[in-house]
Amino acid sequence: MGLLRRYGVLFLALLSCARADAELRILTEPGPPTAFMKGAELQGFGVDVVRELITRTGSQAQIEMMPWTRAYTIAQREPDVGLFAMVRTPDREKRFQWVGPILHGKVRFYSLKSSNLQIESIEDVAASGPLAVPKQWYSYEVLKGQGLQNLYGVPTPETMVTMFGHGRVSLIMLEDILLRDMLAPAGLTPADVQPQMVFMESSYYIAFSLDTDPAIVAAWQNELAEMRRDGSFSAIFRQWLPDVELPDALR
């Protein structure tokens, strides 16, 4: 083996080791109970799952909260970045490496009970009045693709529920398992809203950038599977979602 080639092999080996030891940036958006700030502390179901995975894998990692659009852009462009919790879709499949699922739920339309709306079809949705959905959500992409004229894209889930509570929109879309926590900032409870038709079921993952070492991603997936086996995942789930049965997809 020539001297130049030997140095090349050594350089690649050192680079591989450096990548394996790289510090990860784990990004998330505000969205209780998955991730939210309580005072100066970052808390939530997803936060606890990710922290446990960081510990079990021995990863060097920091969790950062930021708006979804910014986090999504960073995760597509920069190495050693993870983003939770993201719906895994055919369009996104080849853009990321996936660990999960960590959440699974039914996305349905909700109206205020006082409105007496009855939604049984997309045609009913189109005729119901303004429908607010955060622009960064996959459900918004799907609804936009169906050409709904009453679809109103908003920047955050908090904006959506605030507009809903003030009567500025007739319908919103939410995951059933997140309903209570998502409504709370607007002073609403599940008793105030009427569940309407289910639009889709979604599984949520930790999505790693393509330039993250695949060995790191595999280690995270293996440890998540171990958390399911040893009961620690279900314990975290029950802590944050005590009124929700653990979905089969997460067992």
UniProtKB/TrEMBL annotation:
Keywords: Signal. Residues 23-244 form the Solute-binding protein family 3/N-terminal domain. It comes from the Bacteria. It holds the Pfam family SBP_bac_3. Gene3D superfamilies: Periplasmic binding protein-like II (3.40.190.10). InterPro entries: Solute-binding_3/MltF_N (IPR001638). PROSITE patterns: PROKAR_LIPOPROTEIN. Residues 1-22 form the signal peptide. This is ABC transporter substrate-binding protein. It comes from Phytopseudomonas daroniae. The lineage of its organism: Bacteria, Pseudomonadati, Pseudomonadota, Gammaproteobacteria, Pseudomonadales.
